[in-house]
Amino acid sequence: MCLAIAALGLPASACDDAHPGDRAPTEGGLRRDPPLEVGRFALPDETQGGEPFALQASPDGYLLVYLGYTRCPDLCPTTLADVRGARRRLGDDGARIAVAMITVDPERDRGEEFAEFVQFFAPDGHALRTDDPALLAEVEEAFRARAAKVPTGDGYDIDHTAQTYVVDESGTVVLEWPFRTYPETMARDLRALFEGEPVGEPAEEDGGRE
Amino acid sequence: MSRWVGAVLVAALVALGACNEDGSQDSRSDEATTSSATAASAEVDVTDAWARSTAPEAERSAVYMSLRSDEDDALLEASVDTSIAGSVEIHETTDEGTDSMDSGSGSGMEGGDGGAMQGMREVEQIELPGGEIVELEPGGYHIMLVDLRRQLTAGEEIEVTLTFERAGEQTVKTEVKDS
To answer: Which of A90, A204, B37, B135 has the fewest CB atoms below 10 angstroms from its CB?
Structure first.
């Protein structure tokens, strides 16, 4: 079914299911031209008692940023687990990759609990949260990400874009991985970035990924 | 129709020669009982059931598996012991996102846009067309454990009870895994 179609490298739109999980194992990152710039933002880091953390990688490394929320049972843990898998595959180079999750649910994701969630997937990860809705909206816009509350019987869930962004030391998003990019593919892309090799496909204007 | 009547009909069909793939006849047709543990209609094959491990205070998790039924059936609900989760729902993650946003454009990026909005919706049931494998997998259908009462640790095993429209209840040993 869909996995078979995806494995053939055909576009996910060839699938009749509307599931975002159907990437082929080798489908890698996408890059924008001009790239997104997010380095001007610094958000409180709940793993550091709220100290601001700037959206920039360390020199010679990359920062992987994901926007999501902790009550998300499928998209978010899956992506964070994929990121964890990618870092493991890099061996020693895994230490050059930092991880930050920005919560799109600051009302419920906070403090030590939020920090623990992120650090479950990345022990040195950053749990970024802002109380300021305008700032959060600005950050989402800078990533071209979106999030929206969806009421449920006993509260709400959040629909959101589920890209993982690869940010360099100047705060430039050099690559984006759509949801369900395989860990081995993330690792492949990161190795290419370390080597200074070309990586990623251009994002399409018409909304398709090719 | 009552399960008993259904069982008799299935037994009759099997007797008429509806065989399993390997040519054998399903001897379970003889067990025409009303016990929910040994449903007389064909069992659903459940394979590769796994639950995602969780952070210590996580409130939710997901269970995934492959399902295959010889006959048309449907997964109606799932449950776990209340020491694990307060409730269990069946959900589907989709690309459709919320109506209020510019969504439904498929995965990938649009000019200036950051990818499709993705979200999940509770579903009443998951259809299992006879003979087809239906996957519950990341990004698709999943059984959602809500109001987790404790952390799920990789390597442990939990039990998930599935209720199918025709096959009745089946309890599945589910391994907790990191991915």
So the answer is: B37
Beta carbons of A116 and B57 less than 8 angstroms apart: yes
* Amino acid, res. B170: Q
CA-atom Rg of chain A in angstroms: 17
DSSP letter at A91 equals G
| A1 contacts B139? CB cut-off 8 A | no
Contact by Cβ (8 Å): A12, A179: no
Assembly ipTM: 0.84
A208 touches chain B (CB under 8 A): yes
Q: State the Cα–Cα distance between residues B142 and B133, nearest whole angstrom.
A: 15
Neighbours of B26 (CB within 10 A): 18
Hey, are the CB atoms on B178 and A81 less than 8 Å from each other? yes
Strands B85-94, B73-79: pairing is: unpaired
Mean pLDDT of B4-11: 58
* pLDDT tens-digit map of B17-45: 544 444 444 444 444 444 444 445 568 99
d(CA A98, CA A83): 10
Whole-number Å distance between alpha carbons of B179 and B177: 5
pLDDT in tens, A41-62: 999 999 999 999 999 999 999 9
Chain B: residue nearest A15 by CA? B106
